[in-house]
Amino acid sequence: MRVIVVASHKGGSGKTTLSAHLAVAAERAGAGPVVLLDIDPRGALIDWWESRPDHVPAFARSSAERLTNDLELLRRKGYRLAIVDTPPAASETISPVIGQAELVIVPTRGSLPELRALTATLHICADAGRQAAVAIMAAQPGTVIDHDAAIALSRHGALAPATVHFSEDIEAAMAGGLTAMELNPSCLAATEVRALWRYLAGRLESNFRRTVFTRPAMAVALSFGRRVAVH
Q1: Do β-strands 58-61 and 2-6 pair in parallel, antiparallel, or remain unpaired?
Q2: Is residue 30 part of a domain?
Q3: For residue 80, how many other CB atoms are within 10 A of its CB?
Q4: Domain that holds residue 62
Q5: Strand pairing of 131-139 and 81-85?
Q6: I want to staple 223 with a disulfide (CB 3.0 to 4.6 A). Which of 4, 61, 170, 227 is the partner?
């Protein structure tokens, strides 16, 4: 099972929106079965998922402490891809979570102050030996990444070539338990999310032999949504 962690120290960066859209894009692209794991105590992702008409992809609640065991249980159940949504958190909380990832996606809204704020998350990825990709979310038309910021980012990870611009389609879709691809498949946001997933899927494919998982000594029960049960 491949594991993508969506992480950023900064709140409001678009982690939950990105997690939901990537999970649906991956499922629709044939990378499933996909499971979304939410370790954010605020639970925004489960509110979105419970509004979905078909509850696909699957959903599971987890925590930083249980994540290793939960991933192992999901792997045994046959899930091929897990996308983990995380809260804004201090390094001592998020470091073990990033350690479970094959690829870490760090969303940002693209302003220079926000790009500078990514340093802490990217350093954790580097310390854990995990590859990172920065995804620009909710960008305004004409957004240009500062040259110095782009150089700084390149030292820690890759800037994804697909930018997801601000879109009313995304906001309307998330409010109704959907994604932009489902609400309006031909809209710009849907096209951008699909392009972002293709880039990330290519990263996973090129690095699949480097994926490392830690097997737990024993499994624990999960607090799953309706589509995932533990036996």
Answers
A1: unpaired
A2: yes
A3: 16
A4: 2-209
A5: unpaired
A6: 61
Which tokens hold the place of 108?
A: 């940002």
Exposure of 161 in the CB half-sphere (CA atoms within 13 A):
6
The answer to whether position 165 is within a domain reads: yes
51-104: per-residue pLDDT in tens?
Answer: 998 999 999 999 999 999 999 999 999 999 999 999 887 667 889 999 999 999
Place of tokens 């990172």: 132
* Number of structural domains found in the chain: 1
- 181-191 pLDDT per residue, tens: 999 999 999 99
Quote the mean pLDDT of the chain.
84
- Are 153 and 122 in contact by the 8 Å Cβ rule? The answer is yes
Rg, Å, the chain Cα set = 16
Q: Which helix (H) or strand (E) holds 120?
A: helix 119-127
CATH of residue 76's domain is 3.40.50.300
C-alpha of 151 from chain center: 23
Q: Are 54 and 41 in contact (CB under 8 A)?
A: no
Q: Is the residue at 230 inside a domain?
A: no
Q: DSSP secondary-structure letter at 187?
A: S
Helix (H, G, I), strand (E, B) or coil at 130: coil
For position 150, what pLDDT does the model report?
64
89 in Cβ contact with 67 (< 8 Å): no
Answer yes or no: is 228 within a domain: no
